[in-house]
Amino acid sequence: MQFQQLLYFVAVAETRHFTRAAEQVHVSQPSLSQQVRALEKELGAELFSRARGNIALTDAGEALLPLARRILADADTARIEVQELAQLRRGRIRLGATPSVCTGLLPEVLRAFHDRHPGIQLLLEESGSHDLVRELARGALDLAVVVLPLPSPSPALTTVELLREDLVVVSSPDARGFGGKSVRVADLQRERLVMFRHGYDLRELTVAACRAEGFEPEFAVEGGEMDAVLGFVRAGIGVAVVPRMVAERAGRGLRMTPLARPSLQRTIALAHRSDVAPPRAARELQRMLLERR
């Protein structure tokens, strides 16, 4: 099994077309087809169904595809690692983070990293922890800043706790009932919440806390990303539960009220695959993030 054969196989699997796949990997269509046939012969199974010009993965192809993608991603990481120059003058980091972490924790750290290593390319993927774990597992990310606990069962990942952060309630300045020093989770039963989309860790934490108090939260609007949620709260549509770091950086037009003890907290951690060491540049960013603990 050759690396080039896996590359051609993945190209056909993603385009479902031999000619377009050949154009994508800059090789002639006959050469690509020949290499895919050779791979099928070596594996002893057809990888594609070619009925009437329609290209579809067989069961064997479906089984090989995630493994091939991981091999290609690992090889790409190895290439980047070898090509990095001394003193981190060149390289890239594929970093994943949840939206609230992008708003609160990352800006200052990434600015400091960029000032120190301006030649390093930073590629950021913003998504929920569940999605980031999947991207780590298939080799599409070097590091991810996620919320613990991770989904179970999860792939073999190494996690290091970065911080624990209180959650707070944000409301418009003229919202009733939020002028005191703190508010209880049970008090949210009287409020309509601005709620994040499915897949947000904050959504799951908030809904679980309300249910633990014996009620189902009522949503004024749901499905937004962080900026949209804060904007709806500023407009007075409802209140929201967000990380303290986000609330403190949100600026004018919001009132922040702590949750009474026992407060809600979330644990932020840095994660990477256990079987592959992050590239050198990613390890340097990892070190800078850990220094903030």
Short description:
This protein is an alpha/beta fold. The protein has helices at 3-15, 18-25, 29-43, 59-83, 99-104, 106-116, 129-137, 201-212, 226-234, 244-249, 280-291; strands at residues 48-49, 56-57, 91-97, 120-126, 143-148, 157-171, 192-196, 218-224, 240-243, 255-258, 265-273. The chain contains eleven helices and eleven strands.
Keywords:
293 residues, alpha/beta, Arc Repressor Mutant, subunit A, D-Maltodextrin-Binding Protein, domain 2, 7-stranded mixed β-sheet, two-stranded antiparallel sheet, 43% helix, 23% strand
What does this structure look like?
The model has no long low-confidence stretch (mean pLDDT 89). The longest helix has 25 residues, at 59-83. The chain has three domains: 3-82, Winged helix-like DNA-binding domain superfamily/Winged helix DNA-binding domain (Arc Repressor Mutant, subunit A); 91-161 and 268-291, 3-Layer(aba) Sandwich (D-Maltodextrin-Binding Protein, domain 2); 164-266, Periplasmic binding protein-like II (D-Maltodextrin-Binding Protein, domain 2), CATH 3.40.190. It has helices at 3-15, 18-25, 29-43, 59-83, 99-104, 106-116, 129-137, 201-212, 226-234, 244-249, 280-291, and strands at 48-49, 56-57, 91-97, 120-126, 143-148, 157-171, 192-196, 218-224, 240-243, 255-258, 265-273. The chain contains eleven helices and eleven strands. Strands 3, 4, 5, 6, 9, 10 and 11 form a seven-stranded mixed sheet that branches. The protein has 293 residues and is α/β, with parallel strands linked by helices. 43% of the residues lie in helices and 23% in strands.
